[in-house]
Amino acid sequence: MLIRLVVFALFVLALAYGFSWFADRPGDISLIWEGQIYQTKLIVAVSAIIALIAAVMIAWWFVRLVWTSPHSVTRYFRARKRDRGYQALSTGLIAAGAGNPLLARKMAARSRGLIRADQEPLINLLEAQAALIEGRHDEARAKFEAMANDPETRELGLRGLYLEARRLGANEAARQYAEKAADTAPYLPWAAQATLEYRSQAGRWDDAIRLLEQQKAARVVEKPEANRLHAVLLTARAAEKLEGNPAGARDDALQALKFAADFVPAALIAAKALFREGGLRKAASILEQVWKSAPHPEIGQTYVRARSGDSTLDRLKRAERLEAMRPNNVESLLIVAQAALDAQEFAKARAKAEAAARIEPREAAFLLLADIEEAETGDQGRVRHWLAQALKAPRDPAWVADGFVSDKWLPVSPVTGRLDAFEWKAPFGQIEGPLEDGSAPASIETALKTLPPLRDVRPGSPVNDHRIIELERAATIAEAVRPAPAPAPAPAKPKPVESTASDKAPAPNEAKPFFGGLPDDPGVRDPRREPEPKTRLRLF
After folding, report:
1. Per residue in 266-292, pLDDT tens?
2. How far, in whole angstroms, is CA 377 from its chain's centroid?
3. What is the model's pTM?
4. Under 8 Å CB-to-CB from 397, ≥6 apart: which residues?
5. How far is Cα 131 from Cα 114, in angstroms, rounded to an integer?
6. 3-state SS, one letter per residue, for 274-307
7. Closest Cα partner for 195 from 152, 241, 158, 142?
8. How far is it, in rounded angstroms, from Cα 235 to Cα 531?
């Protein structure tokens, strides 16, 4: 509008300038026609020509108006009818969204009478919504099928058919509708997500990864979420390859760790695949990196038992190395306590387990104390006491998805089929409200105060006096809960004979590797003194 106003103003200025120019330069015009001489002023002749042009234009406009008046009148009434139809369509859609089937059906009939359905496909949508509200699902599905056959409403019709199939429990039909929509329009979030889940449930990891890459290219999902799903799909594919193709499993798991550096299932699969290939050091490095960011009991167990030929003392040292990486952590203390129990170092095992129970009094800590009591004293009364505390304690974390508890990680929920549904958390929360006597939540301080005295001592036990046991336990508790100092080299044990240069203890600042060194089991042959054929031991 502004441009037209500017053009009109410029035209008026040009016209005024032209008249002024002719007025400043007077002259006469003579015209001889049929022997007659017609003479007039120049300005009068120009004005007459301009007036004649204007009259011709006005006459042409009037003739054109009269000639096209029937079409104009028809178009006016058609536009008015269309506007009334769109008003009825808008009112019907609002009524359908509000859950008013009577008004929606009435407005659908009115809009169909005012607007042709082939010109406005939203009429089919309104009729389908009205049918859904009234519970006539067969009619609604027929409308959605008609929309699916129309190129303009294909995506809308496929979504309606997909939702109807999900409502009826026809998962195969829903999968086909979702895949058809994802193939034609991968930018649709609902189609891409549903297709991704269906392909994951069927174990078609390659197709799922390809679809996820298309989603990332179309920016359907945010980058952090896409990286997480990519890591989950790669880990699932690596788990299937672990038995028959360790190299492929290793590559997929390492790539998954690039997308999610703290993803525990990917780290475990990568470590197991490297163990089978003999890459012990690299596997240990991967486990250590994940342990530093997210301590997990499966990571700790795999790290401690990485080499099958090691003695229990070697495993205890590796467990203490994990504790040094994450001191005052429940998982670190429990790993050390279990390793100490296996090494028959009961005082250390008891101290670490009690320290873990002080930080987080949960089921695993009390069960471990029961195992220690069984192995050290054999007193069944004290064992039952710790088992009773474990029953009252909160449950240990586990892989949980949609209320389903699994002993291992799974990429898809077996309940809903949702991808990346499993979380490492406690299955159930602590019961709130008043509890009956004797059912209060477990506390390590209360458990220690109510611990029954030692009555029965197993023959051959390293201790035979309850007083000695309590004194040793009290002396080691303070050391267990104290922040771990920097590791210092152990002093060399005195030997009856002079040791050679090769048998000397390492320098104080020399880092002794945990993987690749000699095991501490005295029954294992020392290759420096007694060479033997090289053999490769596999943990799995």
Report:
1. 999 999 999 998 889 999 999 999 999
2. 48
3. 0.65
4. 424, 425, 426
5. 20
6. HHHHCCHHHHHHHHHHHHHHCCCHHHHHHHHCCC
7. 158
8. 41
